[in-house]
Amino acid sequence: MNYLGDWGMQFGLLGAGFNSFGSMEKLKENPLQHLFEVYVQANKEAEHNEDMKHAAKDFFRQLEQHESQAMSLWQQFREITVKEYQHIYKRLGIHFDVYSGESFYQVQTQEVVRELQSRCLLKISPKGTGVVDLSPNEDMSNICTLVRSDGTTLYITRDIAAAISRKEKYCFDEMIYV
């Protein structure tokens, strides 16, 4: 199974960067190279520009809310990258039985959050983030953030949803991440 990092704040940054610096013409000419250039430029911009950081967070929030324009752009980005990955894997003689990704578990993340809330395990931190207390003394000295203050999820949230889904689907004894 190939589990792609096809969701998250990196796509918020790519989407915001594309809205600022991208070109559909260049995307058609050399798709992966253009996405790379846009991502690098957006990252550099975000280092010193709060507007770019805000735009990236906003784009990702739009993705999580399934707003059509953001989803359409994201879908194009995903198709470009998966096609390139498959080409590279083929050249290397690598075959995956299943292509999956973080995006597949968007809906399930909300189920994970609700389950943790129902068990009183998800707490709201002073910063407004949804966290699980992992400290042995339950003193919030060691927490895992699962939900940002704006309601968007993190990789770990989607990873938990993916692990639950895999366990239910494949009924394995052991799952190995490589």
TrEMBL record:
User: This protein's superkingdom?
Assistant: Eukaryota
| Gene3D superfamilies assigned | HUPs (3.40.50.620)
InterPro entries hit by this protein: Arg-tRNA-ligase, ArgRS_core, Rossmann-like_a/b/a_fold
The protein's UniProt keywords, in alphabetical order, are: Aminoacyl-tRNA synthetase, ATP-binding, Ligase, Nucleotide-binding, Protein biosynthesis
Query: Start and end of every Arginyl-tRNA synthetase catalytic core domain?
Result: 1-178
Family per record? Belongs to the class-I aminoacyl-tRNA synthetase family.
Job of this protein: Catalyzes the attachment of arginine to tRNA(Arg) in a two-step reaction: arginine is first activated by ATP to form Arg-AMP and then transferred to the acceptor end of tRNA(Arg).
Protein's UniProt name: Probable arginine--tRNA ligase, mitochondrial
The organism is Goodea atripinnis
